[in-house]
From TrEMBL:
It comes from Aspergillus tanneri. Belongs to the peptidase S58 family. GO terms for molecular function: aminopeptidase activity. This is D-aminopeptidase. Coiled coil: none annotated. InterPro entries: ArgJ-like_dom_sf, Peptidase_S58_DmpA. SUPFAM superfamilies: DmpA/ArgJ-like. Pfam families: Peptidase_S58.
């Protein structure tokens, strides 16, 4: 992730966050600068009027993308930032997640959020912690869904594909090394060290689905808060100066946010998997989504006669289909853009819920 040294040094995020493929980092980096120069260039000096190091993260989509063609250009990034809006985030085969493979299935972009009750000097408030993932990691045999080892079940019981199709997909299915980018956003007031701790909780959600950080797996997490508005360029003074009070959550009360970050990360990966559609790469490799396989195996053998979950039962608040299971959309650009401080309402302010599940079902953390 570019710009990470500045984030570690200052705790300030001064750039849009761009998610793309491994060979497009340079183009996206340039695109952020082109946008900044166009919008914020000082007429006298010709420079951007604040210090900016672009933040670009990548995962490798070489199975389903002619990655060497390097089709992403800086102007695509500029157009993407221009067109960023508050609409529901498309999931699956979209943005930087278009060509990604997750645990042997078609992966990609996913997001989810949790609403947390809080207190500000005794007054009740509600905070949101949300996760957006670009999932491109892991092996099929390790996939768990709601605690059920569906990956192992599918590998053991299904023999649908022909031997030729299986050999074409062998490399992608068996691969365990890969990458996942997790962006955690919250409107809770957290200082940089607390945000680092929050970002680490993405590991918990990732492990529930079946990721365990194998050798060369590029698992990168970033968290930011929109609660406090820090002046971008305050007047310089040699004397240390205090002119702003910053509110922060007390450490001893932060656990609910940690849990929310883990849960949202887990569900965001599910949504990336459920929202994906099958895709064929330039070398003839075809990768399929996992939706029907999950439905088949999350059934009576684990939870009695009542099915554990079907896609039709995943009904979130405000009539938005969980995981965009029936709204998966292809995107012409291999980039995903998150404008800082302009998070989609799906990231800041909406909660997911799961209905129609028997009360006797074991833990479904990350779904409810």
């Amino acid at each position: 992730m570019t710009g990470s040294h500045w984030l570690d040094e200052t705790g300030l995020l001064n750039s849009p966050i761009i998610l793309t493929n491994s060979f497009s980092v340079g183009a996206c980096y340039t695109g952020i600068y082109e946008y900044a120069v166009r919008e914020y260039r000082d007429k006298e000096s010709g420079l951007v009027d604040w210090f900016l190091l672009p933040v670009v993260a990548e995962t490798c989509d070489l199975y389903l993308n002619d990655i060497g063609a390097m089709v992403v250009t800086p102007d695509m990034v500029v157009r993407g930032i221009d067109q960023a809006n508050a609409d529901f985030v498309k999931e699956g085969n979209t943005g930087g997640g278009t060509g990604m493979v997750c645990q042997g299935f078609k992966g990609g972009t996913g997001n989810a959020s949790r609403i947390i009750d809080g207190l500000v000097f005794g007054a009740e408030v509600m905070y949101t912690v949300a996760a957006l993932v670009q999932a491109n990691y892991g092996a099929k045999r390790d996939l768990h869904f709601g605690g059920v080892p569906v990956g192992r079940l599918i590998a053991e019981q299904d023999a649908i594909a022909t031997a030729e199709e299986e050999s074409q997909r062998e490399d992608a299915r068996k691969a365990k090394d890969g990458s996942i980018i997790v962006v955690i956003a919250t409107d809770a007031p957290l200082h940089p060290t607390q945000l680092q701790r929050l970002a680490k909780r993405a590991t918990v959600g990732l492990s529930r689905v079946g990721g365990w950080g194998s050798n060369s797996s590029g698992d990168i997490f970033i968290a930011f808060s929109t609660a406090e508005k820090i002046p971008r360029a305050p007047d310089f003074s040699w004397k240390p100066r205090v002119e702003q009070n910053i509110a922060v959550v007390q450490d001893v009360t932060i656990n609910a946010l940690f849990e929310g970050a883990a849960d949202a990360t887990e569900e965001a990966i599910y949504n990336a998997l459920i929202g994906a559609e099958d895709m064929e790469g330039p070398r003839g490799v075809k990768i399929y989504p996992c939706g029907q396989d999950i439905q088949r195996h999350l059934g009576s053998q684990f939870f009695g006669s009542e099915p554990f979950v079907t896609l039709e039962k995943l009904l979130p608040c405000e009539e938005v289909t969980l995981g965009s299971a029936f709204q998966a959309c292809h995107h012409s650009y291999d980039i995903l853009i998150l404008p800082i401080l302009q998070c989609c309402p799906n990231l800041i302010g909406k909660r997911r819920q799961l209905v129609g599940i028997p009360l006797t079902v074991p833990s479904v953390r990350g779904l409810a």
